[in-house]
Write a structure and sequence with these properties.
Helix content is about 45%, strand content about 15%. By secondary structure, it is an alpha/beta fold. The strands form four sheets. Strands 2-1-3-4-5-10 form a six-stranded parallel sheet, with helices on both faces. A two-stranded parallel sheet has the order 6-9. Helix 5 (about 130-150) links the parallel strand 4 and strand 5. The longest helix has 21 residues, at about 70-90. The chain starts with a strand and ends with a helix. About 45% of the residues are buried.
Length: about 300
């Protein structure tokens, strides 16, 4: 069986990916205490000892707008360091394939909707998450550079905002869906009269169920060998104000929603053109947003 090392295998997306791949491959799934990707010597020693055929690099420091604003240097430095180490080690040991995961945060702030892969170089990312987005864009540059100079087979996938079971519900670092679920669940339990939400609700986002992203990665293992990036998403856009009301209804919160326009909206719009992934991988997301949201909610309240 092909042996695959998954960095970040114990994280949110990692758990979905391990579930998807465990029947078909021999998986190396070290925890962060067993493999510190930021430690160059430790990473090289681990790869040299375990000799994987393929590496899927998921390990990352990530979070919502608040976390990005609080620790921009950490988001830039730690993600850049992990990416550079993985690129260098994969090339040194002649790994047959490296799959890197980028971020929709790498796209320019005012990218025309839907975002096409070639648009990624047309401007600076939205300010609240630019350090993270640029660190992730380094991976794309690195894949191209190592492929060109060393004949490596490094590829780059760009998933849109993800959600699902095992997501981060920590109020200090969570993204919008788990943050809102937690807020509304707390409001319901406390019989709150209202819930306050960051921004004015006018921004839009696209959301991808993490299990569908895992399927796209599985397809890329066998079917994609180009340094050109691939958008991974649903191609469906939703306004934050509509998202908020959907989550309120799922939770059953009866109070008011109060938007706080003094807080940042983040990027005005996000929605990907996923036609290249359909062509190259025959990938189409199959989990509806309503179904995925309910799965996420049920997992959280029962975990």
């Amino acid at each position: 069986m092909k042996k695959i090392l998954i960095t970040g295998s114990r994280g949110f997306l990692g758990k979905h990916l391990v579930k998807r791949l465990k029947e078909d491959y021999e998986l190396l799934t070290p925890s962060s205490s067993e493999l510190n990707v930021k430690d160059w010597e430790e990473l090289y020693g681990y790869i040299g000892t375990t000799t994987p055929d393929t590496i899927i690099h998921l390990a990352a420091v990530c979070g919502g707008i608040g976390a990005n604003q609080k620790s921009p240097a950490d988001f830039f430095w730690q993600n850049s360091l992990m990416g550079l180490n993985v690129l260098g080690a994969s090339s040194y040991f002649k790994i047959k394939k490296l799959i890197t995961l980028g971020s929709v945060c790498s796209y320019p702030k005012f990218t025309p909707v839907p975002f096409k892969e070639e648009d990624i170089w047309d401007g600076y990312p939205e300010e609240t998450n630019a350090p993270y987005g640029i660190a992730k864009k380094n991976l794309l540059v690195g894949c191209r550079a190592f492929n060109e100079q060393h004949g490596d087979n490094f590829i780059h996938l760009i998933p849109v905002n993800m959600y699902g079971e095992h997501d981060d519900f920590d109020p200090q670092s969570s993204h919008v869906i788990p943050a809102l679920l937690r807020k509304f669940i707390g409001g319901k339990e406390n019989n709150s009269s209202h819930i306050k939400v960051w921004g004015d609700g006018s921004a839009s986002r696209e959301f991808l169920y993490a299990g569908d992203c895992a399927e796209a990665i599985a397809l890329a293992i066998e079917n994609y060998n180009s340094p050109e990036p691939l958008n991974i998403g649903t191609g469906e856009e939703i306004l934050i104000k509509d998202l908020v009301h959907m989550i309120r209804d799922v939770v059953g919160f009866k109070g008011e929603v109060v938007f706080d326009p003094t807080k940042p909206n983040g990027q005005p719009r996000r929605c990907l053109d996923t036609s290249r992934a359909k062509k190259e991988l025959n990938f189409t997301a199959t989990t509806s947003f309503e179904e995925g949201l309910l799965k996420t909610y049920n997992w959280y309240i029962n975990s």
